[in-house]
Amino acid sequence: MPRDFARRRRIIRRISNVAFIAVLSVAVAYVITRPVGGTGFKLPKGADRSASSGAATPSAAYPEGSFADGYHLKDGPFVVTEVSDIVLHDAKRNKDLHVRIFYPNSVGPYPVIVFSHGAGGSQTCCDSLTRHWATYGYVTLQPTHEDSAVRRRNAGEENILLLQAVREALKNPALWESRPRDISFVLDSLPALENRIPGLAGKMDATRIGVGGHSMGSYTAEAIAGATVDLPGHPGMSFADRRVKAILCLSPQGPGQFGLTGHSFDGIKLPFIGMTGSLDSLGPVASPVWHKAAFERSQPGDKFQVFINGANHMSFINARTLSPAPSAKAEAIIGYTNSASLAFWDVYLKGDAQAKEYLQSEALQDSSHRAVTLSRR
């Protein structure tokens, strides 16, 4: 009987997790994609997703290959394998870390992108981005950090909710430290992953590594890139990992949260692209202007900032919607995000000259009918 009871409890927990994710996704998708103003969104003809990329310095012509309607809108040429969940054990911290992986089936090696989810999120938050990148020749790794509401529910905290997890993450310095350490541990584990997953053998190029993130995941990427963090009793802590060559921040984090200060970003020298929008505001602190702090205060050179009119905090990772009316806008936003980020990775992890030329053009602004701008410094 005890075994039957435990088995029923596990089944109920799994069902409740699925229901929780479904309801949460629908609710968040409705909030972020309801009609709230903003103009100029148009899906490119014949594209699976609307996407493009541009720069503050105008260019009269688009790159060879005509990306006037966007940069690599459809899935790329590589067939991709998914590893939905693999557990890595960090002996130094006595911690298990769950990781989701997408990788091309063809012979490598390929650049590696580690993507960090937002506070309370999970490894599945950004599949529309990470899988798409993999189809263009990247291995993408998505760890689930310990603040994840789903992870905590699976561990027995059946009543934990996403908003509660977010509030707790904002006040927990231990998480501010553990997240960037999770990323470095994943990079330490690349050889182990190749040994454990036969299809990954020879696929990961450890000399070409990028780190991206959304919301608190952006904080994680900023810390990995050299942003200093004030921890209790340890001001100005650095978690910089020199193996990382470039970072992507969706809804970048500014000063006043997670131990970041006005001077935290002074040490960021790596190529950086941040993305925010006119509705990317979470209370009085996290305004669209606040999200630009990392771009404006980091060391100049190879820094980009995408601003999307009508995009809010969740628009960069979720295009699902309840009604057909706003769905085109939602698809457009996720498309602009995907395309700009892929062009950035192609430049700084592959040295792609065409992608670099694309980032110098006004293709992003033109294809979005000026709903999107891209600045650089």
Task: Characterize this entry briefly.
With 377 residues, this protein is α/β, with parallel strands linked by helices. The chain has helices at residues 2-33, 127-134, 149-154, 162-170, 173-188, 190-196, 216-225, 293-297, 324-350, 353-360, 363-367; strands spanning 80-90, 95-104, 110-116, 139-144, 204-214, 229-231, 234-237, 244-250, 272-279, 303-312, 372-376.
Descriptive account of the structure:
The chain is an alpha/beta fold and 377 residues long. The chain has a single domain, classed as 3-Layer(aba) Sandwich (Rossmann fold), CATH 3.40.50. It has helices at 2-33, 127-134, 149-154, 162-170, 173-188, 190-196, 216-225, 293-297, 324-350, 353-360, 363-367; strands at 80-90, 95-104, 110-116, 139-144, 204-214, 229-231, 234-237, 244-250, 272-279, 303-312, 372-376. A nine-stranded mixed sheet has the order 1-2-4-3-5-8-9-10-11, sandwiched between helices. A two-stranded antiparallel sheet has the order 6-7. Strand 9 (272-279), helix 8 and strand 10 (303-312) form a beta-alpha-beta unit. The longest helix has 32 residues, at 2-33. The chain is globular. Residues 5-62 have low confidence and may be disordered.
